[in-house]
Here is the input.
Amino acid sequence: MKITHCQPYKKANFIKFTFLVFFYLIMFLPSLVIGQPPRGPYVISPRVHPDKTVTFSYLAPQAKEVRLSGQFQRDPVAMTMGDQDIWSVTVGPINPDIYPYSFIVDGVNVMDPANVAFFPNEYFKASLVDVPGDEPLIHALQDVPHGTVTYTNYISEVMEDKVMPLVVYTPPGYEESPEKEYPVLYLISGTTDTEETWFKVGKANLILDNLIAQGKAEPMIIAMPYGNNGIPISGPASPDVVPMYQAFSDQLVKDIIPYTEKSFRVLSDREHRAVAGFSRGGGQTLWSGLSNPDKFAHICSFSAYLTREAFEKNFRSFYSNPEETNAKMKLFWLSVGNEDFLYQQAIDFMDLLKEKNIDTKTLVTGGGHTWMNCKLFLSEAAPLLFK
Amino acid sequence: MKITHCQPYKKANFIKFTFLVFFYLIMFLPSLVIGQPPRGPYVISPRVHPDKTVTFSYLAPQAKEVRLSGQFQRDPVAMTMGDQDIWSVTVGPINPDIYPYSFIVDGVNVMDPANVAFFPNEYFKASLVDVPGDEPLIHALQDVPHGTVTYTNYISEVMEDKVMPLVVYTPPGYEESPEKEYPVLYLISGTTDTEETWFKVGKANLILDNLIAQGKAEPMIIAMPYGNNGIPISGPASPDVVPMYQAFSDQLVKDIIPYTEKSFRVLSDREHRAVAGFSRGGGQTLWSGLSNPDKFAHICSFSAYLTREAFEKNFRSFYSNPEETNAKMKLFWLSVGNEDFLYQQAIDFMDLLKEKNIDTKTLVTGGGHTWMNCKLFLSEAAPLLFK
Here is the structure.
């Protein structure tokens, strides 16, 4: 009886053990495959606590110094080594938002290996920490109808038939209403960002899901192109910056808009077309929007500007008859943070437009040239679009 | 005359200079924002040369030792510091494929900051280098009609109403043929991978675009879930591995399939439904597929297996009447590389199925437990689906 009882028990244990060896191997396999040492203990990082302090952890048996760099603090802070070679530090409380951060390990910037949330960028690598609000923030994943984000691509004739990526948000209900057509926002990220940055960092999809659910924004399509058109900026003495702007404007008008209108159910009149962007994308927005007032009735520039000289040289027709321009433009939005390194220039441009009697909506916030501000700018500008 | 001539020239230069200062600032801004030191020189890495050697470069003024780790080589190789604090090394020629790699900077694994192509994973961070073939490889972006990849999410009742991510490939023509319904492949990645890995590393979308263009594969939808269902695997003595498999199978059948069929135009009979996966996802594939033969007529397991004990204990009905099973199953595919650490177990499982008189298609390749093999397995298995 005892044997009969023990036999299946042992067998079950054997099966479990065999499975567990299998899983244990697989657990550490990716590290082995990639040429890293086995990971050792299971690190969970970051951990956001109820009081909005956050603990960051990093496994580094050989490091001499590990620091935490993040946009929720001014300077990097030291981490200390605890059990099992894990360095950690608890910081905050942190004001609810999504922030880029990285570890500085013996002087080397490293993404958090335990964190999947990352900042797509061509020239630095950072992870993202999401500190939720007591009430859900406008970019939080909430229990509302969700749109989808589609990765697609188009052939750019302007860029010699190169296949270019495009990330497109379609709002909730898009699939279910196959007859309905939507207004479209072309949304451009900054220098060294990619076509993914407005999605992965800017949370454009979740912001619109929430604004639409709250009845604050019109359901719209958002097309997010890759702003780097490969025209090199050689340095301060290079004459190639204006051609880059112009070439992007051409790409937008000749390639991106036609592709989007062919592939998605888009209202194709200027009153239902907007362009917006951050930093370099804000400059591309201004150049494209002001060059093509017949195409765009909505222009939103986040943390960017045009010089007086560039504006007066290239866009005389835009301001020479302000009444006509103001009647045609449905929204001309400009925003910047008061700690942005472009703050004064952006303010000067706002003043210049006032001086030219061009109607604008402006927003000056706290904070700097950051994606925390990007989310805020989109959240505030999107409700004004297509109305 | 001279003045008249020079004036606009100077003015144009001033405008250009102003723009360039603006761009120069923006160029270095992301580094400043993220708390890294300014990047200094513009690093291009990797550079794939016509002879298929590849130069990798990394800016690290303070590093004492930088090495290149990559799946195209057995051991890390030393990099040397050249001009402007840039470490580099040229390796190869490399056999055409897409490989994960990283830099080991004073013992710390680092993604390539200059490279946008990355390996989505929960526990390590790697970049990707694409060495093209003389003729385009099956995963290459080619001039053929392209499908799209959609990021969406579903509410998982099995996971207590958690919002779960799902990445979905729809084939070329999906948008243009609003009446057409497609077969669907549920495709699961490995331990520590994410729902993005089959897209970003496995290139499932491009492989299908090319196979469809060549007339080799049926146009199909591919739904790529997040395989980590949060049930912890505590270690080799833990009894929780089988519940994790079973819970994932439940999630697939009760949440993922219904969501996919509601949201996409999917043929919903078992003959038009397949499940496939790699590593842990291969195990989840076997468990889900064998537990639900009424749901799946196609099962493809890449680099995974079930033990004889688990198979005989849990899936007796699958092999007790092999003629019936063989008549019902349209495809039961098993593949593994002969350097895979699971090679022998996978071979044993192939033998076990033969012994039970279950029809299978098997493929044993060179190489290990890698995503290079994943791409190959999908390329070879997909043409057999839904036929």
Q: What stands out?
A: Chain A has two domains: 47-131, 148-384. The longest helix of chain A spans residues 2-34. Chain A has ten helices and 18 strands.
